[in-house]
Amino acid sequence: MNSLIPLLVAAPLAGAALLLLGGRALDRFGHWLATAFAALSFGFGLALFSDMLGRGAEHRAVTQHLFSWVPVNGFQADMTFRLDQLSMTFVLLISGVGTLIHLYSVGYMAHDERRRRFFAYLNLFLAAMLLLVVADNYLLLYFGWEGVGLASYLLIGFWQHKPSAATAAKKAFLVNRVGDMGLSIAIMLMFTEFGSFAFGPVLGSEGAVGAAHQASEGKLTAIGLMLLLAACGKSAQVPLQSWLGDAMEGPTPVSALIHAATMVTAGVYLITRSSAIFDLAPDAQTAVVVVGAVTLLFGAIVGCAKDDIKKALAGSTMSQIGYMVLAAGLGPIGYAFAIMHLVTHGFFKAGLFLGAGSVMHGMDDEVNMRHYGGLRKYMPVTFVTFGLGYLAIIGFPGLSGFFSKDKIIEAAFAKGGTEGWILGLCALVGAAVTAFYMTRVMVLTFFGEKRWQPDEDGNAPHPHESPKTMTIPMVLLAFGSVFAGGLFAFNDSFLKWLEPVTGHEEGNSPLAPLTVTLLTMACMLAGVALAYLMYGRSPVPVVPPVGSPLTRAARRDLLQDDFNHAVLVRPGSALTATLVFFDSRGLDGFVNGLAAAIGGLSGRLRRVQNGFVRSYALSMFGGTLVLVATTLLMRSV
Amino acid sequence: MTGQLAAAAVTTDLAAATGRLAAAAGATSTGEAVQFWVLAVIAVGGALGMLLMRKAVHSALCLAATMMALAVCYMAQGAVFLGVVQIVVYTGAIMMLFLFVVMLVGVTSEDSLKEQLKGQRFAAVLCGLGFGVLLVAGIANARLDHFTGLSEANAEGNVPGLARLIFTRYVWAFEVTGALLITAAIGAMVLTHREHVKPPKTQRELAAQRVKDNIQLPPLPAPGVYARHNAVDVPGLLPDGTIAEDSVMATLRERGQIRDVSQAMLRRMAELENSTADWLGRPSSERPEVAGPRKSLEPVPANGKAGAAGKDGATGEEGDE
Amino acid sequence: MNPVNYLYLSALLFTIGASGVLIRRNAIVLFMCVELMLNASNLALVTFSRMHGTLDGQIIAFFTMVVAAAEVVVGLAIIVSIFRTRHSASVDDSNLMKL
Questions:
Q1: Do the beta carbons of residue C41 and residue C10 sit within 8 Å?
Q2: Where exactly are the transmembrane stretches of this chain (chain C) (predicted)?
Q3: Residue A389: in which H helix or E strand, if any?
Q4: pLDDT digits 0-9 by tens, B98-141
């Protein structure tokens, strides 16, 4: 049964290779082929899942050695796969949601002439992400990590004829490189410190203590911070968050895939997977928590101000991933909740994005929410599924977001002390803001008066429901949004499922769980009410008002690009300009000056070589004269 | 050549006698002194003449005079054999070779007086003067008051003495010199030799080639005008009075040594017309125009090489008249 | 008269020859000047021979003549071949070796 593990990765990889190499012959049915490969991977995942359930909790983690990748003495990198409860969760999420997004894309990309290539990239994305989560050592994980970066680059820039898309892809790639550098440095540190980078020897496995437990805290902190940097890059956490908003330039299914099932979850996976290191390095853990909390609020604030539906959802993603990172930074109290929120978020965020894509599909690719309004009558299925996703994300009681987010807020308070209070309050505020901006999105899009107008050519959009291939995934994901949380929370089943991998401990919360839940409810209701008062009661202006300075800043992504430009780009350009100046004037000037001096001297000396033999004879005669004179003088002295 | 040898033999005896005389004393005899001054004037004069004459032939002749003077100087100093060799080999053979080459290159080619290199002449004169002063100063400073004389060395005759040295002490140098001469001869041959890459064309092939190329199938026009000039440098005249370049050989054309007599002939014709008109009493307006003399020949484009119009060609108008 | 005068004559002739090499442009005349210089040195050698009372100086003068003959042969051959290709015996016309 374990031999199926490599096939998890191989199936979408084969699909990608087939589609890329197959040529135009596959244009007609290539998208179905890719979907089939994704579904096949999901099927393998289900089979392995049932197999895993059949074993006892202690025997669920399995490894499968495929071959020795880099067999060098002292440097052993193996193509070994590890499937434990954590990996299993991710595999099912990635392949399941990924398959649904494939299916959705069949409808969404129906008229794109490069559809085959798009599906090949989607399959490549799935393969890289699956490799990332089933790898048994950090190097293999890094392989998948880079594959994800590559696939995201290709997909974000899929409509490369648009300069904005090409720029966004480049930006995502470059920002990710910063994080990738962190991961590579972390792997190198691991190798120099522990002599290995496989999960077992480093992190410890059943009954065996990993090398990390013997290492000094300083080194572990360094490794932890580097891993955090990597996670920041991939998961769009502050300070490497700037690529996420621009990544909306990609086709909407790509956004759904990046935000729900792959890519951004990789950072959370990395932190959770490296829990052994973070648990032993409290400083690194604190850094993780701070990053999570800051990103949580950052993303939420940005989400409030955006009029572009996809960018509002992108801010939301950033915020929700911030929740996950916050939870993962809490240590064993929060790992399971981080993953749980990740899974539930995977459902409802995929649903929301697919819904947004459906709205855009019906509105002729209009993304400005101020031009929507009253769409619930035109696209009921989208409205219902999007609404369920909305309720899930704001944490409406009984839906999946409620269970996972509530647990995270509880865990934040359970951290204890001042730290716990600050984190808990951040999370509570985040919940309120989440409710606010999601309600805003909902109201602006589906309620109120219709606000779309004909464009210059007089073509008014005709909102309509999307085809079956698009609505079916949305419906399925809506089911997930509604029921997943309850399923996981029931009898703490998810907690117990993950406990062998991540461990779990109950914190000592200063507040009773019920109090936290009520507080969360109150915050959520406050956010919803405020949003309804602002956008639901009065007509929404089509042209956005100027707004407060905070709003203007939030519209510009809280000045993240300006910050990067001022702090990184300007000094970098200035440094480059200085170096270029020194190089061209200083070094080149010296060298060129030397060459010019020698050239000028040679030019003058060349006149001597006039080619006339008599002139040469004259110089010879002059030389003889000098010689004779010298000889005579020497003799006479 | 025989005369030269005889003259040399006579001088040999004379010089040997004076040499012996001089060797006995520290200084030379009065006769040799007189001879020296005469010869020195000739030699320096010849050398300066060689330096200053514009025509290479004149230079060569001046040099020959210098060499003859030097030959006598050699003999006067007891180097009888060298003196003879100087006359026979240098003046007789080498200078003749020079003259051959001068003729080959063009006897009339001469240096223009205009110096092309800036400051070359001034610097050369300056260097020459400086060098001369240095040499003279060097000789003057050297202690050269004692002259042994060659009476002992030439006791059994100059030639046997030289022969003894050449075939004993200097035999190696002598042999090497022989090799050098052979090498020089071969070198000269190689330098002036033109390799035939194709077998030379036969007369039939040449004729066929001419027909094919369609150039000048009939014989070239003959030189000479009105049967009055049969010199090869006088071109024949075409019916319109201009000269036929083809009638002069290519070498002369190349050197620009065509003697154009057409103008003179036309002038003679005009004079004849005039005298006839005078005799017949015609009015002067009906007399034909007398063509002005042509300045010189235009360069003849021969095989693309522009031959400069020689001065001889221009000045030789009055030629044989 | 002191035989040293022969040496002065030799120096004078040599200088005239050297100046001629520098002044004249006709390659043939140039060669003549070289010959004059060789002759001047021969005169000096003969005078030295007389001074020392040995014949070695004359021998060397003899060899000089031989070498001069060889030199003239080769040099004139060169002049002829240059004239053949360039139609000029002026050394100033053969200045293709410069830039």
A1: yes
A2: 6-23, 28-48, 60-83
A3: helix A380-394
A4: 988 888 887 555 556 666 777 888 888 999 999 999 989 888 88
Question: Does residue C95 fall inside a structural domain?
Answer: no
Q: Where are the alpha helices (DSSP H) in B77-143?
A: 80-85, 95-105, 120-141
Average pLDDT along chain A? 88
Q: What is the mean pLDDT of residues C57-77?
A: 91
- The residue ranges of DSSP E strands in A104-223, in sequence order, are 204-205, 208-209
Assigned domain for C94 exists: no
CB neighbourhood size of B246 (10 A): 18
Q: How many CA atoms lie within 13 A of C40 on its CB side?
A: 27
Q: Which helix (H) or strand (E) holds A66?
A: strand A62-72
Chain A interface test: which of B116, B125, B131 (most A C-beta within 10 Å): B131
Distance from the C92 Cα atom to the nearest Cα atom in chain A, whole angstroms: 6
| Residue B308 · residue B223 · CB < 8 Å | no
Condensed to tens digits (0 to 9), the pLDDT of residues B34-50 reads 999 999 999 999 999 99
For residue C91, being part of any structural domain is answered with no
Strand, helix or coil for residue B77: coil
- Residues of chain B found within 8 Å of residue C83, distances taken between Cβ atoms: 104-105
Q: Which two tokens stand for residue A442?
A: 């909902």
Cα–Cα distance between A263 and A256 in angstroms, integer?
10
Closest by CA to A202, choosing from A274, A271, A142, is A274
Q: Residue A170 burial by CB count (10 A; 0-12/13-18/19+): exposed, middle or buried?
A: middle
Choose among A317, A214, A205: nearest CA to A268.
A317
What tens digit of pLDDT does each residue of A59-115 get? 888 888 888 888 888 888 888 999 989 999 999 999 999 999 999 999 888 888 888
- Could you tell me which chain C residue has the CA closest to the CA of B102? C28
Peptide bond into A6 cis (omega under 30): no
Do the beta carbons of residue A328 and residue A288 sit within 8 Å? yes
Answer yes or no: are the C-beta atoms of B131 and C15 closer than 8 Å. Answer: yes
* Token pair of B16 as six digits: 């040997």
* Test mutation, A628, A631, A634, chain B, max B CBs within 10 A: A628
Cβ B51 vs Cβ C23: under 8 Å: yes
Top residue of B52, B53, B66, B193 to mutate, by most chain C CBs within 10 Å, is: B66
CB atoms within 10 A of CB A497: 21
Backbone torsion region of residue A532, taken as left when φ is above 0, otherwise alpha when ψ lies between -120 and 50, otherwise beta: alpha
Q: Which of C19, C65, C77 sits opposite B191 (nearest CB)?
A: C77
pLDDT < 50 stretches in chain A = none
Q: Which helix (H) or strand (E) holds A75?
A: strand A75-83
Residue of B nearest to A621 (CA): B127
Report the length, in residues, of chain C: 99
Coil, helix or strand for A63? strand
Q: Which residue from A611, A618, A621 is facing C95, i.e. has the nearest CB?
A: A611
Residue C13 maps to which CATH number? 1.10.287.3510
Within 13 A of A470's CA, how many CA atoms are on the CB side? Answer: 27
**Considering only CB atoms, which residues of chain B are within 8 Å of chain A?**
117, 120, 123-124, 127, 130-131, 134-135, 137-138, 141
Mean pLDDT of all residues belonging to chain C = 88
A500 DSSP β-pair partners: none
DSSP-derived secondary structure letter, A78: E
**Measured distance CA(A76)–CA(A73) in Å, rounded:** 7
Establish if C12 belongs to a structural domain: yes
pTM of the model: 0.61
Residue labelled with tokens 């083809």: B246
Which pLDDT tens digit goes with each residue over B81-95? 999 999 998 888 888
Q: Which domain holds residue C39?
A: 3-86
Measured distance CA(B120)–CA(B238) in Å, rounded: 48
Question: Total structural domains in chain C?
Answer: 1
